[in-house]
Amino acid sequence: MDHIPSQPPVKSSRGPFTLAAGTAAAAAATNAQAYALGPVAGTFAPWMLLAVPAVVGLWWLMKSIPLKPIRQAFPGISLLFKLESEEKTPKRIPWWQYIPITLASAALVGALTRPELNPQAPLPGSGPVMLVVDNGWAAARQWQARHDQMQQLINRAEREGRPVMILPTAAPDDGSPVKVQGPLSPAEARQIALQMKPLPWPADREGALESLTALQADKPSAIVWLSNGLNDKAARPLSEKLASMGQVTILEDAPADSARLLLPPETGTGKMTVTVKRSHTGTQDDVQIVAVDESGKPIDQATATFKPGASETQASFNLPPEISNELARLSIAGEPSAAATVLLDERWRRRPVGVIANAQNNAAQPLLNESDYIDQALNPYVDLHQGPVDELLKRKLAVLVMTDAAAVGKAQSLKIDQWVQEGGTLLRFAGQRLAAQETLDQSLLPLKLRQGARTLGGNVSGGKEGKLAPFPSTSPFAGIPLASHITIKQEVLPQPGADNDENTWARLQDGTPLVTARKHGKGQIVLFHTTADPAWSNLSLSGTFVDMMRAVVASSQGVAGKLENTDISLPPLKTLDGFGRFGAPGAGARPLTAEALAQNQIGPQHPPGYYGNESLRQALNLSASITTIQPLGAMPDSVLRKTYAIGQKERDLTGALLGGALGFLLLDLLIVLYQRRSHKGPDKTPARKAPKPEAGS
């Protein structure tokens, strides 16, 4: 455990137990200098020790005063002159009876001197004391240590009669700029410190630097930066600015107590794998990740192990789809922090996908069944169902797959059209049946098609088979690696149109579309211009096909909906505080747009939490906006760096001594009451007979 170091030497040395000043005025007059009473004790108010002789005098006074005698009225007193009483009134109080009152007096004298345990040296200088507090998300894990340290520093400033300035580096929840508060009296500063809480967004050290530059008040002479231990581009400039104003001490967490970050799982992978990051990489560390449902009930737990020297690790949850889809939240066990919490929405659920059954059942020959290729590509990542249209539409589906051999009549087409307009995604594949139809139902196609199919690799195409071109940056397929062996032998072509390029997700190297899509109501229709089996291409035999299918599913709205329209904004539903607890949105919270969701803009206007309503709810996570966390870098040479004091703390013993004095007084009162009660009790001693008068008397 480290403490804030002393600067100038005091007039005398102090041991582990010191008596502090009785009043702020006295402390200011003496500048909080201790007067030694020996190698282990000292006091800030030596004049109060003049009461010690009074305690000794009280002892002798009580020792010399006898108890009040018991008066008894007796009619035959003349007959009792010669009687001797068996009960004697003591001449003085028993020695054990005046011990409680003596100890009470001594405790009261000690309390008046305001004693303190584990005192620290006076703060440097004589001007205001400034506390710079990183109260962003990274402070939440060890917030109690910061709170205790602030209280100790304010108490020390109060003993020395110095004002306090406080600079929180995180923007307030109302969205106002970061600013210095003060100079304040220690009582005012204590109230601000009590009300301060970690906020669920990063610290704004650049804003703190600007507020210091504009500071017009008296410059502080002692500055303590209660940092979060993390580095950013403004950390060094801020420390240099503080060092130019006074003596700076930086407090930071020990490596084992530094903040950790839980990243959201990847979407559309079919697995619930989370990544945990840390800033310090020295030792091995096991982290427990807990998954809970909407009601807060724990569903599963996974362990992520940091190896020595590693800054990140992963943990996976192996749950069946019906249970995985019930998860609402992931968090690091025992770490109350918004950065250690991940909220889940529809994007992380294994989306239900329906595959329309073929008109002819080829179960005996799976290589001739297009549905089997769909199943192999999607089954590990989605909740897959196969069956007739009517049965599938009774389920809650995100995507409906319609191969060329699918059995769909006119009535089913109308139902599918209605389902798409309500938000579903229809994924179609071309083939001989689609190319041979003379009259096409264009309502279930993204673009109007030409009749027939185009054959590549023949004389018309110059003997070259079709090769995939790189995916456009605006396509959901962007970033998917292309397998070089993929060749397209046949495809259906769209009719010329002005919006063909806009609706094309993938094309061949000759520019002809391979995958097209368009919005239809609230949903979308996607068409692969080739087959789902190897009849027209070997695309379905490649890993690229698996990634493309997953991208289509990810582009769907899912069951609960999805925010894609940039003109729509979702109001804050419930947000997280710095400790990762749900609460009402703050005063500065604003509706969430699609742009803000895509950019993960976390701050007072968009705190982490849920936005929207129960039918369309989007999760905004703090950790998704943080790319790396690194420990605090090099600081100026004049800056002292310490860790938070978690063990021994300054403790004011005034209350304990006052309580002890009251306890001894109560003990003395009980003794007196007991004695009076025993004296008032009935006398059970047999009465003695008076002696007979002598003859002649």
UniProtKB/TrEMBL annotation:
It comes from the Bacteria. Residues 45-115 form the Aerotolerance regulator N-terminal domain. The chain crosses the membrane at residues 44-62, 653-674. Pfam families: BatA (PF07584). CDD domains: A4_beta-galactosidase_middle_domain. Keywords: Membrane, Transmembrane, Transmembrane helix. NCBIfam families: two_anch. This is BatA domain-containing protein. It comes from Micavibrio aeruginosavorus.
